[in-house]
Design the sequence.
């Protein structure tokens, strides 16, 4: 889906008009789809990623800015925030989205050095982003919205590797505690927890699990719709996640903070095979 096509140019459609947003991990996947949707809704978007070609091309296509940013390195995250502020004089929105998967395997054979690398990106990267974005928002004295990417794996066991699950669960706690501190400045902190959204990471995971190289995003959506959704036949779509982020970033969610918005077709809330008892 091209989120730049058939844009509604009416003022009512510009839910983020004039706002400045920073998206880490914004070159592709949920981050990329959100960057397009933010721009469509009137935001000035800074994309921070390590995928330089993809990020640069996407930023140019939406009239935004791109900066190379390894979120495990605090100084690079700080530079991304400074770019947004120097570009438009403020920062209104942070979507702390950058993350990686794995390593998998048994807890009994887990290599701690692999865990350290994962934590550096998935958890420390979020801490770096909230730290420096909130500084800019506090200085701007106009509030702000911070949205963090967690996962359905944070609320339901057995969906992902042990280290990945641990980091995504930690993000939920971090969002709640930072929401407590930052609320006095009018800054809201929320999470999204997607499930079955066909990002490149999830598609690659299905390829590995199924031992097939021919799996694509449409296949993943179909599988999720059949096996991992209460809305039988309705799998997750990229726009399901990006629209959720848009809502939490916009003033429409102005009284929502410390919340985790789960985007899973109800999968983590009920046992789908019991639906027959209601028939």
Sequence:
């Amino acid at each position: 889906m091209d989120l730049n096509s058939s844009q509604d140019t009416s003022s009512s459609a510009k839910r983020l008009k004039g706002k400045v947003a920073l998206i880490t991990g914004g070159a592709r996947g949920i981050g990329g789809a959100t960057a397009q949707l933010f721009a469509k809704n009137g935001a000035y978007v800074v994309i921070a990623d390590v995928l330089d070609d993809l990020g640069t091309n996407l930023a140019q296509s939406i009239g935004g800015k791109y900066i190379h940013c390894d979120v495990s390195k605090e100084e690079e995250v700080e530079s991304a925030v400074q770019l947004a502020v120097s570009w438009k004089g403020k920062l209104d929105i942070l979507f702390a989205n950058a993350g990686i998967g794995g390593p998998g395997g048994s807890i009994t054979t887990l290599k701690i050095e692999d865990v350290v690398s994962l934590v550096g990106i998935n958890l420390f990267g979020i801490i770096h982003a909230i730290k420096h974005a909130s500084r800019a928002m506090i200085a701007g004295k106009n509030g702000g919205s911070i949205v963090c990417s967690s996962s359905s794996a944070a609320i339901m066991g057995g969906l992902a590797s042990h280290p990945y699950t641990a980091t995504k669960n930690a993000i939920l706690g971090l969002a709640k505690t930072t929401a407590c501190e930052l609320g006095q400045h009018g800054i809201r902190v929320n999470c999204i927890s997607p499930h079955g959204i066909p990002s490149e990471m999830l598609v690659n995971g299905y390829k590995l699990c199924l031992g097939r190289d021919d799996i694509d995003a449409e296949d993943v959506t179909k599988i999720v719709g059949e096996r991992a959704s209460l809305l039988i036949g309705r799998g997750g779509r990229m726009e399901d996640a990006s629209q959720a982020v848009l809502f939490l970033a916009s003033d429409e969610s102005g009284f929502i903070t410390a919340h985790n918005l789960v985007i899973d077709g109800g999968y983590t809330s009920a046992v789908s095979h019991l639906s027959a008892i209601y028939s």
Notes: The two ends are 35 Å apart (CA to CA). The chain has two domains: 11-196+237-265, 198-236. The domain at 11-196+237-265 is CATH 3.40.50.720 (Rossmann fold).
